[in-house]
Every structure is written in C-alpha cells, then in structure tokens.
Amino acid sequence: MNIHEYQAKELLRKYGVATPRGQVAADAAEAAAITESFGGQSVVKAQIHAGGRGKGGGVKFAKTPAEAAELFGRMMGMNLVTKQTGPEGRVVRTVFVSDPVDIARELYFSFLVDRATGRVTALASTEGGVEIEEVAAATPEKIVKVAVDPAIGLAEHHARELAFALGLSGDTFRKGVVFFRNLYKLFVEKDCSMLEINPLVVTKQGDVTALDAKIAFDDNALFRHPEVQAFRDLNEEAAAEIDASKFGLNFIKLDGSIGCMVNGAGLAMATMDIIQYHGSSPANFLDVGGGASEEAVKNAFRIILQDPGVKAVLVNIFGGIMRCDIVANGVVKAAREIGVQVPVVVRLEGTNVEEGKRILSESGLRIQVGADLDDAARKVVAAIA
Ligand code: GDP
Ligand code: MN
Fold first, then answer.
1. Which residues surround ligand 2, an ion (CB under 5 A)?
2. Are 93 and 80 contacting, i.e. CB atoms less than 8 angstroms apart?
3. Cβ(34)–Cβ(97) under 8 Å?
4. Element spanning 193, H or E
5. Which of 18, 105, 132, 360 is most buried, judging by how many CB atoms fall within 10 Å of its CB?
6. Do 232 and 155 fall into the same domain?
7. Are 281 and 256 in contact (CB under 8 A)?
C-alpha cells in the first residue's frame, strides 16, 4: 500500500525525522492562511500517489498568501499528468502547503528490501531531485549501498558511512546520522517495503530535511498497523483492484489483451510468460488464491470480463486446495449472469478435474478446453488473432 507525501511526513515527524512544516489545506482561504503562518511564502503541492509532480506542474512556489490561494484553486481537481501517472494522469483531491526551504544541496536517500541479500538496504546518492533509475543507468557509481543486518539494525558506523558518502560534514553530518537512524526505525517498526526521500535536502542553514517522502508498506503486515491502514486512499487505487480485494482476490491491471484467471502467483507468472511466448500479452491477471469459494470465483471472472482491455480470457487453474468443480461452477455462474462476449479458454488440472470439465461442457457456454497449458495459451492467442 502507498500513502501520500503529507501522510508520510506525519510519520517522519513522529519518528523525529526532520521535514519542513506543512499542512493540508481544505480550501483556498486556508492555503492563504497557512502560507501567512509560514511568513508569507509557501510551496503548494498536489498530493497524488505518483512522483514527478514538480515537472508536471504539481509543485509550485507561492510568493504571497494570495498566490497560494490562487495556486490552490488551480491545483485542486486538476488532472495531473506526470512521468509516473501515465498519459491518463490523476485527479488532485488533496493539496498540501509546505514551508519553503532554502536549498543548498539536493540528495537522494532510500531504504528498500533487497531481495538478493534479504536485507533492508540503504541507498544514498549525491544526485537528488532526479529519478534514481536515471542515476543508476547513467552514473551507477554515484549510488552508495549499505545492507543492514536485521539483528543489529542500522548501526552508528553505517549511518556515518552514509553521511560521509553524501558529503555531509560538521553539525550537518551529525544531523544526517540521526536522520538515517530514525528513518530506519520507522521503516522497520511500520513494516515498510520502500521509503524514499527524494530530495533529501541540506539547507543553507546546514539542516538536513526531507523535502519529499514516499512510503510503501508491506500489505501482509497491514493488519498490525491500523494507524497505517487509516492512510489508505481508495481514490488512488484502480477500481477493479479494490473490487477484487473485497473478495480476497488479487487483481493486477496490465496493458495487453488477454484476461488471466489463475491460482497462485507463480502460476500467474508462467501463464503470462506463455501468453507472451505465443505472441500476445496479458490484459490483467487475477489470482483467486488457494481456497476461494464459488462466489469469489464468480466475482473474479466478472472482474476480468469487465476489464475493457480484455479480448479473450484464459482460465488456468491447478487445483490443489482449490477444487476444479468450484472454479467451473463460478465461471459458469458469472458467464450466465453477465454474459460473455469474448472467447474463453480453460485449462484445468488437479482435484476434481473431471467434474470441473463436465460442468463446463454441460453448461452450454462456448468455452474451449485446453489439453494442457501450452495448448490453452495457443488457443486463446489464436482466438483473437
Ligand atoms: P516530485 O516532483 O513529485 O518528486 O516532488 P518534490 O516534492 O520532490 O518536489 C520537486 C522539486 O521541487 C524538488 O526537487 C525541489 O527542487 C523543488 N522544491 C520542493 N519544495 C521546495 C522548497 O521548499 N524549496 C525549494 N527551493 N524548492 C522546493
Ligand atoms: Mn520528489
């Protein structure tokens, strides 16, 4: 789960991580009042779950309270297009007013979970304010990595190594060390999967502060953080993904033409690979998981069919805990209720497979059955060729 910048900054403050003062404004008058309280100037920032706002027109400097009010009016409700939103953009529903900072240097700092080492890893770079992917591609030597031993945590010497790599010195160095250690504490205690401060700023006064903050949380740990769950903004999530999550299903929207209903993430990957191998690409995949009910399967199939990108559907189920007859009944019910306008190919294997195939063939629906995964993928791709 992702959260907004202003929410991330609330968390930073709770952990003693320096970040400029700021407040969400409900209306233009409040944007002006907040700006007034900061001494008459502010940075007005659109809150969407995507970066690149600065270049897209979602971060603007206000020289007076009146200008902040005007910027609020322009930003609120606008469709903000950035490099990360895709061409369709995102509607701005929240506007944050921030106390301006005099920037001396823009740096980059993040924690992420490095799957190769299985460790939380700090990334730091003197090249802040630009996308780290670009730095990694052009000047990878400018990124310093420190893997953290989970038993020890971010040790003092690690924090010093990072501060040193960023060229901090004197009092600023000491502030950097405190910043990194508090940030690590937040990362671990709140079960984050990614925490990025870009830019991490050294101010002209020699302070270290988080000018921007992006946090992603491990969904599997959300149950133990109700205060983080409260940050969830459904407006920022794809409607179909929310719909699916109500039934305990995982739906991922992609940009190809074949809808995929599968059970298990590994099978989803294999299914998408084989679709690509046969010359098409997935429009989405929906993982019904292990023990889904007929009702959940029915909704899964409905959600796939409602995706406008779907030109054909491949159902690929390996019944272990999941029974093939439950899948077949769910598919048939969904097909009857909402009608199916696109070709459907089913590959079933495992528990109660004969019963599942019988239900499909007796349903009267035009559903093709694949002999195996390869055959099913071939058929579904051929169906839309
Ligand atoms: P992003 O474009 O979505 O990553 O939004 P950021 O919050 O990172 O802001 C983009 C850029 O705006 C930063 O890299 C800064 O250069 C600039 N910026 C944001 N806030 C301030 C501020 O308080 N003072 C100054 N001088 N520049 C700022
Ligand atoms: Mn940023």
1. 198, 212
2. no
3. yes
4. strand 192-203
5. 360
6. yes
7. yes
Q: Other C-beta atoms within 10 Å of 70: how many?
A: 17
The Cα–Cα gap between 252 and 215 comes to 20
Q: What gap in Å lies between CA 319 and CA 263, rounded to an integer?
A: 8
Model confidence pTM above 0.85: no
Radius of gyration, CA atoms only, the chain: 25
Q: Which residues line ligand 1 (CB under 6 A)?
A: 43, 51-54, 59, 98, 100-101, 103, 106, 129, 198-199, 211-212
Tell me the one-letter amino acid at 381: V
79 and 140 belong to one structural domain = no
CATH code of 256's domain? 3.40.50.261
Q: How far does the chain reach from its first CA to its final CA, in angstroms?
A: 37
- Contact yes or no for 241/251 (Cβ under 8 A): yes
Q: Which residue has the tokens 């190809």?
A: 256
- H or E element in which residue 74 lies: helix 65-75
Same domain, 333 and 348: yes
Q: What is the pLDDT of residues 56-82, one digit of tens each?
A: 999 999 999 999 999 999 999 999 999
Tokens of 6: 């202003």
Number of compact structural domains in the chain: 3
Given the residues 67, 127, 196, 294, the one annotated as active site? 196
Of 284, 299, 283, nearest in space to 249 by CA: 299
User: What number of residues does the chain have?
Assistant: 385
The pLDDT tens digits of the residues spanning 28-57 come to 999 999 999 999 999 999 999 999 999 999
Whether 196 is catalytic is yes
Domain containing 291 equals 238-383
Longest dimension (CA), the chain: 78
- How far is CA 130 from its chain centroid? 19
